[in-house]
Each structure stands twice: as C-alpha cells, then as structure tokens.
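Progress note, sequence design subtask.
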C-alpha cells in the first residue's frame, strides 16, 4: 500500500470519537430544548477553532446565542400581550410642539422607578397634546425592561368586565386586569360610564392598589371626576 500523500491527514473526516462527542452535544442541546444553540453549534465551533478560543469562551459564545434568542422571543411575547395600539416610543415625542410637558419629569418616569413603588400616573389635558403617546412610550419602555404590561381603554375595560360578569367570569376578568405590572387605561372620562362600569373601574384599581401601577389618560379635569362618577369615593380611589 502506498503511503498517503503529505497533508492528506488534514483532509480526513473528524475522528470517530470526536464525531460521537459532537453528536452527543447536539443531542444534549436538543434534549435541553436549546434549539438556537444547536443550530449555531457548527458555526460557533468553526469560529472558535479559527480564533483559538478556549473551551470556556466557546461555551459562553454558544450559550449567548441561545440567551439572545430566548430574550427576543420573550420580548416578542410581552409585546403581543401588551396590545399597544401604536409603535410610539418616548423618543418620538416632540417636546417643542408641546412646551407645557415637563421633559425632566418624563425622563424621570422613563427610569420606571414608579413601577417599584406601584405608583400611578395621570396624564390629563385636552385632546391632541400627546397623552396617549406618552402613555404608550412608557408602556413600551416597561415592556422592553421585561415587565408585563397591558393597554386598554376605559370603555373597553368596562365592557369586557361586564361581559365576563354576565358569563359568570367576573373574578377571572378582574384577576386578569390586576395581573400586569403596568396597566394603561386610555381615554378615561371620554364618555360617561354607567354605574356598573364605574364599579368595575373601582374594583380594578382597588385590586391593583400597592401591587401594580396604572397609567390613566383623560381629557377631563380631576375636579370633574366626582361628578362624572356620581360617586366621590370612586374618584378618590382612582386618584390615590
């Protein structure tokens, strides 16, 4: 038998023990449900060999692929759940067009400290000043920070709870609205709600008290809330 030509050893396929280990590694990644790391494995190993990375650095790079993909899926899930009606961010707000908005205050709210304190935020002003835009911007910032957020209008919230009550699911509906770290209630006071709807809002806000934050947007001044609700107690709960 003639000897193998020089350099032929480099062209031989991976040795059998190495191939077995490689396949086991892919199986381990699949068993642990790390599909993105499994898909990236060949490329990561090639890059590690080319850059002479240590085993620790190679493992970190491989797991970083899975972490990044997992975070992307989690963010996508939180974004879908939030039901934000527009793609606004706080960076989109034009303070020059609304000089009455306290930019320093918005920057402070953007730190999301209010979530740690379960504090509520009221955006009150006439239509067109950007209340909803700011509320969406803060909600999106909270989503991107990994918090569960839900956006609704006051009218839709009341309607959903009323339907749930008729179907015997009142407590389930209230638990849903009590769950998110941040609940945004838009267009509060846009239409006068009936007594049952007012009671629903009272219950939702009460359940969230000191547990989760609420952002409310309204064109109706605080001084009119008691009259609109025909119940000063309900107005007081919303303002506390």
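Output:
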């Amino acid at each position: 038998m003639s000897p193998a030509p020089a350099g032929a050893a480099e062209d031989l396929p991976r040795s059998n023990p190495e191939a077995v280990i490689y396949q086991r590694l892919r199986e381990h990644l699949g068993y642990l449900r790390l599909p993105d790391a499994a898909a990236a494995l060949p490329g990561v190993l090639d890059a590690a060999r080319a850059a002479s990375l240590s085993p620790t650095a190679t493992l970190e790079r491989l797991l970083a692929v899975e972490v990044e993909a997992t975070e992307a899926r989690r963010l996508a899930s939180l974004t879908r759940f939030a039901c934000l009606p527009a793609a606004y961010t706080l960076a989109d707000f034009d303070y020059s067009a609304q000089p009455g908005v306290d930019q320093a205050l918005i920057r402070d709210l953007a730190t999301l400290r209010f979530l740690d304190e379960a504090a509520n935020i009221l955006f009150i002003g006439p239509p067109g000043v950007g209340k909803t835009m700011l509320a969406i911007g803060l909600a999106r910032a909270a989503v991107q920070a990994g918090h569960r957020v839900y956006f609704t209008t006051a009218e839709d919230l009341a309607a959903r709870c009323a339907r749930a009550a008729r179907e015997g699911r009142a407590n389930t509906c209230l638990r849903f609205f009590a769950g998110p770290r941040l609940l945004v209630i838009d267009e509060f006071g846009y239409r006068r709600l009936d007594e049952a709807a007012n009671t629903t809002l009272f219950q939702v806000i009460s359940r969230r008290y000191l547990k989760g934050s609420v952002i409310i947007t309204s064109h109706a001044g605080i001084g009119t809330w008691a009259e609109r609700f025909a119940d000063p107690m309900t107005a007081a709960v919303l303002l506390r």
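Residues 45 and 58 are 7 Å apart (CA to CA). Work on this subtask will continue into the next period as scheduled.
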